[in-house]
Amino acid sequence: MREISLNEFNKLSENSYVLIDIRDEGLRAYGMIPGAMAADIDGEDIREKLSAIPADKILVFYCETGRKTGELDSDALCEGRECFSLEGGYIGYVRNSISDENGMEEKRNKAEESIRKKYHKQLFTPFAKACKKYRLIEEGDQIAVCISGGKDSMLMAKLFQEIQKHRQCSFELTFLVMDPGYNKDNRALIESNAKALGIPVTIFESEIFDAVDFIEKSPCYICARMRRGYLYSKAKELGCNKIALGHHYDDVIETILMGMLYGGQVQTMMPKLHSTNFEGMELIRPLYLVREADICAWRDYNDLHFLQCACHFTETCTTCHEDGTTSSKRLETKKLIAALKKDNPYIEFNIFKSVENVNLDTVIAYKKKGVRHHFLDEY
User: What's the pLDDT score for residue 32?
Assistant: First the structure.
């Protein structure tokens, strides 16, 4: 399919084209180009959707980086109609929208003010509550705020900057970005967003993506564990004693449910834990009580666009966690929780609280520090 540059696209008359987003649902949830329609390129309804578009309209397809749409068979898909692949895809569009140097200060000021005012109760209050409740920030800490480039870690960085201004205890921050082998567009997007939001990032490189390219069994799990190790190592090298990750409340409840449904176990994502391989290092999750919907609301209010896709060979794998779960399983679990919530509005709270109310008298078996205990041992 022929490419159309952003400059050429912007010159098109607004009523002369239809913009078509062919990314998967998980990617679209992180933002779409205004006015675009969603269409599953592998779905049965794609031709029906395209046939409903007036024949005089130009069809402009976009994916995440432009690679997938560039490989589409325009003759088979468009049946003689004029159609294009948007150069750079969604990432290119986002980079172009934040490249205005003059607008960066205004964007940063608005983002920071919205944290202090409009979204203070939804974002800063639960952030500060988690830090206090779980003792995540302590006097003299040097915290490596790990930024993946997504909405969660970028907001976490801004919340850390805000809480540091309160000076309730003295601690230092290093905003750490690891490039595990991003393509140049993803790397540039992270750098542009950090600059626009006033986050002074320290970037270091690794070759993790290349290392897991040829791993067939559980590549997501191995990739996540390797990324964690590299972050610990670099943070310790820089004099930090803690690394902060951007997992939020919804990640916690999804992890609990997926552990039962897919792993046959009851476990949770802890608000903090000691590293087993890096002595003296801790991992903290200060967004532990922050809801994802509120993060999205802050993002959209400030017209911010963040990296969602990171994996350079699948381009669909941003939400890979240390348990090896990918975006498809996460999305499936999100939908399940949403369906359950229709009948029980407290379902999310109950899932979250379930791992705080474990009654060992009614548990068949459990593990503690790697040692398995069975109820028959003391029956």
Answer: 86
Distance from the Cα of residue 329 to its chain's centroid: 14
Confirm if 145 and 173 have CB atoms less than 8 A apart. Answer: yes
Q: Give kind and range of the element (H or E) at residue 44.
A: none
Strand 17-21 to strand 58-62: parallel, antiparallel, or no bridges (unpaired)?
parallel
Q: How many domains does the chain have?
A: 2
192 and 319 housed in the same domain: yes
Q: What is the pLDDT of residue 324?
A: 44
* Residue 319 predicted with pLDDT over 50: no
User: Does residue 322 fall inside a structural domain?
Assistant: yes
Whole-number Cα distances in Å, 37 to 22, 40, 46, 360: 9, 10, 11, 51
Q: Is the overall model pTM greater than 0.85, yes or no?
A: no
108: CB partners within 8 A, 6+ apart: 196, 197, 198
d(CA 148, CA 29): 17
CATH at residue 232:
3.40.50.620
